[in-house]
Amino acid sequence: MESEPAQSANRAVTLRDVAKLAGVSIATASKALNNQPQVRAETRARVIRAAEQLSFSPNTLAQGLITQRSGTVGLLTSDLEGRFSIPILMGAEDAFGSDQTSVFLCDARGDAVREKHHLRALLSRRVDGLIVVGARPDARASLGRDLPVPVIYAYSPSADPDDLSLVTDNVGGGRLAVDHLIRHGRRRIAHITGDETYGAAQDRARGALERLGEEGLALAGEQVWFGSWSEAWGRGATRMVLQRTPDVDAIFAGSDEIARGVLDTLHQENLDVPGKVAVIGFDNWNILAANARPPLSTVDMNLEQLGRLAAQRLFAAIDGTLEGGVETVGCRLVIRESS
Amino acid sequence: MESEPAQSANRAVTLRDVAKLAGVSIATASKALNNQPQVRAETRARVIRAAEQLSFSPNTLAQGLITQRSGTVGLLTSDLEGRFSIPILMGAEDAFGSDQTSVFLCDARGDAVREKHHLRALLSRRVDGLIVVGARPDARASLGRDLPVPVIYAYSPSADPDDLSLVTDNVGGGRLAVDHLIRHGRRRIAHITGDETYGAAQDRARGALERLGEEGLALAGEQVWFGSWSEAWGRGATRMVLQRTPDVDAIFAGSDEIARGVLDTLHQENLDVPGKVAVIGFDNWNILAANARPPLSTVDMNLEQLGRLAAQRLFAAIDGTLEGGVETVGCRLVIRESS
DNA sequence: TTGTATGCGTTATCAA
DNA sequence: TTGATAACGCATACAA
């Protein structure tokens, strides 16, 4: 009848219970479980067995109180759809190692007061650090310099240059896209992109232009088509491009959404992709890119890597001190069938 | 020179500091800050002022140690893209009230051992409860009955009927879609959907069939087109539907992805939407539905509401006790221009 | 090698 | 109305 351990009602089993079961003091139990050297092998084994029997799991809150470290970080986002935050979170999660550090995900929904609330709550929970992911890849307000924990801005840089920001190399991404097109023999390349008030749109265009310039080439139609980040704009702009420069042989779209619009119009005009016109997008948003007809080549921002980097920098900053500045993460090409 | 408070270096300001600054004992400071009645108004004001000056924020870990409640919950997901988890998280977040309860988001990436790890970590952090979001809307393995905290399964029900599961009313969603089509005079309705091994696909189809039956109608072509959850399948299946039943006047797609494929083929065949054929999707995945040509009518699963409900049930279960079973959350129609 | 005592930051129970 | 003091669960310096 002793064969049914307290397994099923394992609420609140503490080190005290383990110690009692093992017949040692709390201190000894603690040392045994934490691999401290000053404990006899046989004793340690006994303690460990007891802990397992009770399926003991140490109370991290109590540990945190002592070590002054909660083993948690906050991920403060404003990115509604989680489209950028999620890959960043996943990268961070695996850099931290899931059982070392856990992350609180808070969505401020673009609301400054909600952000303040979340910030207070996180600080109150004694997070060891913060990762801030903005809604768009442009500078956002700093959380301030007087926070008790290190803060890393990811995706959207902080407006304060003394903060550490990790951002996508959009210029490089633009180069990458155009370089790929050029290598495949395209010469009449157009660029349709989103809102011109976005730094990312400017940067991607700049990268494209630079690479084109190196080849002695200019943009087909000699302009960048700024508009909005939507399929509808991609459709409309493509129509204009075709009218203005019917000999266009490639279109670099500033986002996968736009690229979908581009494809749509190209199909309507019976222009073969990539036979007649190659198309390349930006973001590698799988649901859009992989399912396109044909599957869309695109530029991936390596957001997971960005998340990993954020975790590493944060980790380093937690004991050391944080150096401000802007670090850049390179993009990579994902070639499918549209180019 | 006293005008510069310790604001900038506010690391580790404790109740002790506040008490000292206010000239009272720690106990009194605590009572004052927690609105306990037995404290003089003037004293309370003094304490509060001191707390503000030091921008004191109580250490939640310490509070949790005493109250036996961490004020945190874990959201354990397997939903890679966060497509379902995020709305659920947002709903839960706002039901909890951001400064009362914070949520740990953990992605198990469909890996059972990773899930175990996360679970251990979460338990060790003494979360007050768990919300589990599966990867697909079918039953998933239970976490077990012997956990020290209440668990709610959202989106994917638990295989154990004694657990509490909150799921989408897929049958109702199917009815809703077809009902809408019928009300707008459609009679020759086809249904193209995803993998037939998905309960959700079966349920949506069943709802559609039921509603059709009530009207004395049958499915155009007298079959449900099961396949995969992709645009490509939507395209291919539409082609078959058109061949088999050229007089089809509406297509109910089992997901927005499929619906996008349907639209694509319809355009290729020069069939006007919704003039000739109406189309309705499922999921209300904004990026796909809102940007479609024409914008796609679709069924929304009210995932945020599901998240809110999960939070409420969890909250209730934290002090009370949890009743098992399956609760269902209704869908709603989002009418755009494709129907 | 083991155990006792102290403290982490709070709250709660008493006396004063 | 206020202030010692004892928890909460754990880790550690120190004593045995």
From TrEMBL, chains A, B:
Keywords assigned by UniProt, alphabetized: DNA-binding, Transcription, Transcription regulation
Domain HTH lacI-type span(s) in chain numbering: 13-67
GO terms for MF: DNA-binding transcription factor activity; transcription cis-regulatory region binding
Residues annotated as transmembrane: none
SMART domains: HTH_LACI
Annotated PANTHER family: HTH-TYPE TRANSCRIPTIONAL REGULATOR GALS (PTHR30146:SF109), LACI-RELATED TRANSCRIPTIONAL REPRESSOR (PTHR30146)
Name of the protein: LacI family transcriptional regulator
Organism of origin: Actinoplanes cyaneus
Encoding gene per record: lacI_7
